[in-house]
Structure formats: C-alpha cells, structure tokens
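Sample entry copied in:
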Amino acid sequence: MTERLDWIDPTVREWDCTVMWSDPADPEAGIVLDRSAFYPGGGGQPPDHGVLLWEGVQTRIVDTRKADDLFLIPAPGDPVPAAGTTVRGALDDARRSSLMRTHSGLHILCGAVFRDFGALVTGGNMQPGEARMDFNLPEVPPGFKQTLEDAVNAEIAADRKIVARVLPREEALAIPTLVRTQDALPPLESPEIRVIDIVGLDVQADGGTHVASTAQVGRVEVVKVESKGRQNRRVRIRIAD
C-alpha cells in the first residue's frame, strides 16, 4: 500500500519515490507509488494536482482513483513511467496550500456553529479559497451572518493548534463530538480513525489536510447565508487573506 506522506506531514511538497504499478499502454489505469503526498480527495476536499519528474520528462497528475490502493491519474497524452521507475513527485503548492487553509476554515466554521447553535452538518464542498457548508439550522437570529463571521475570525485570531491524530476506533468513537455530519459514521471496517483536533474548539473525524494552527487560515469572509428548505441553511465562505 502507498505510504501516505500527506497524512504524515502535510507540508511535504516534493519527495522521491518509486512506481510500484502502472500500465503505460493504458494511462487511465493510473500510477501507484510506494510513497505519495498527493491527497486523493474525499470529505469534500478535491484531490491534489502536481507532477512526476523522471528521466528528463514530466507526467502531470490531475486526479486520483481510490480502489485497493491510490491510483494517480495522468493528464491525457502525458507519458507514464513504468513500474520500477524512480520518480520525483511535486505538488501544485498554491493549490494544496489554499485547500489546507480552506479546509481548516471549514472546521473552524463547523466548530463555531456547533458550539453556538448546536447544529449538525448536512453537506459541504470546497475549492481552493472558497467553500460552502450546510447545517441543520431551521432558524437563525438577526445578524447571523456577521455574528458568525466575527466568531470564526475570533477563533482564527486565537491561534489555536490544529492537530491530526490516528486513534483506535473504540477510543475515537468515545469522543461525543466525533461525527458532525448528520446521519454519517466512519467506515465500519476501519480499526483506526483519523481525528482533527482544533484544540479547545472542535474535534471530529476527518481524512483531509490542514494547516498547523488557526492563525494560518487567514481572515474568513462569510459571503452569504442561504435557505435550503425549512431545515437547512447554507453558509458560503471565502478565505480573504
């Protein structure tokens, strides 16, 4: 199985590795590396983009397919390194860094809404620098949009540590706030669960990449609050700095 450098150290942007499997005759089958910092996508966070550098050429990576391992998908027409080839991986730093800030911003938003309004998440999505999250929140008070923006930015200014931990399943499930998405549970077959802890604010199961502290997110703007049926409110945010 591919060693997940994105989980071990989300600041890694370049690394050396070896192609474990590929089919140069069928590029869409993907490329499996022994070590990879490419986040494969999931939990609303899109996959990383980047390149593999080998023997004087480059292969652009534009997607990932998750099966029994992580299969990196090359850009159409790009050459595919054969199994056994030593390559150097490199991420699109601007994209990854923006997604890390955005994802952490969503967790701060989620923590503030749960703390102040007791609402669970019903959906979400993100792109670099902007995102939306839906909450089971039938009613909101006057001035909710500005109140929420102020609360999120106060947590950013507090410079809280953001820590990723992998816990045994039983220990993780004992955390009462572990699952913030309504009607969702971590995969039943997982003996361990990865947890993101914004110390003093929010603890929940999550597989994505994050910055090391809330201050690294930068300022968050709550762009719009929309009604999505009687029970749901959609909050759209943008990373302003």
Notes: The first helix runs from residue 5 to 8.
